[in-house]
Amino acid sequence: MLRHCKALLSEVSRLPGVDGNAKMSKSLGNTLTLSASEEEIHRAVSAMYTDPTHLRVSDPGHVDGNVVFTYLDAFHSDKALVAEMKAHYQRGGLGDRQCKNELETCLQALLAPIRERRATYSQDKGMLLELLRQGSERAPPAHAADAA
């Protein structure tokens, strides 16, 4: 008998491109990849679309449609801090650069261990092939047990 699956869904259904377009796409050049370097993340976050009416730090801003806040909602672990930042941004007094700095710090911390593992595995192709071989040996018995 097949096991029942439990859906693991994010609160954010789809991330927009860093340029504010509804779709993230490599061909449009508006993506953040897991393999991005620190500098690539910095450039992407610095260029992120924000509220075009938020011209001065003192101006009240809109968080709906603001890509920086969409990404903060998706990736920042401190939801209370993000909520406070949203309120501060909406009443004015919080600049786009401060929001982007917080997002960049969050993304760099999230991606650092992924970069490290990727570097480790890419240096030892033999180990990577061995892990794939071991996984392929285990896969058929696991599938057979689920189907029984």
UniProtKB/TrEMBL annotation:
<keyword id="KW-0648">Protein biosynthesis</keyword>
<keyword id="KW-0436">Ligase</keyword>
<dbReference type="GO" id="GO:0004830">
    <property type="term" value="F:tryptophan-tRNA ligase activity"/>
</dbReference>
<dbReference type="GO" id="GO:0006436">
    <property type="term" value="P:tryptophanyl-tRNA aminoacylation"/>
</dbReference>
<dbReference type="GO" id="GO:0005524">
    <property type="term" value="F:ATP binding"/>
</dbReference>
<comment type="similarity">
    <text>Belongs to the class-I aminoacyl-tRNA synthetase family.</text>
</comment>
<keyword id="KW-0030">Aminoacyl-tRNA synthetase</keyword>
<dbReference type="Pfam" id="PF00579">
    <property type="entry name" value="tRNA-synt_1b"/>
</dbReference>
<keyword id="KW-0067">ATP-binding</keyword>
<dbReference type="GO" id="GO:0005737">
    <property type="term" value="C:cytoplasm"/>
</dbReference>
<dbReference type="InterPro" id="IPR002305">
    <property type="entry name" value="aa-tRNA-synth_Ic"/>
</dbReference>
<keyword id="KW-0547">Nucleotide-binding</keyword>
<protein>
    <recommendedName>
        <fullName>tryptophan--tRNA ligase</fullName>
        <ecNumber>6.1.1.2</ecNumber>
    </recommendedName>
</protein>
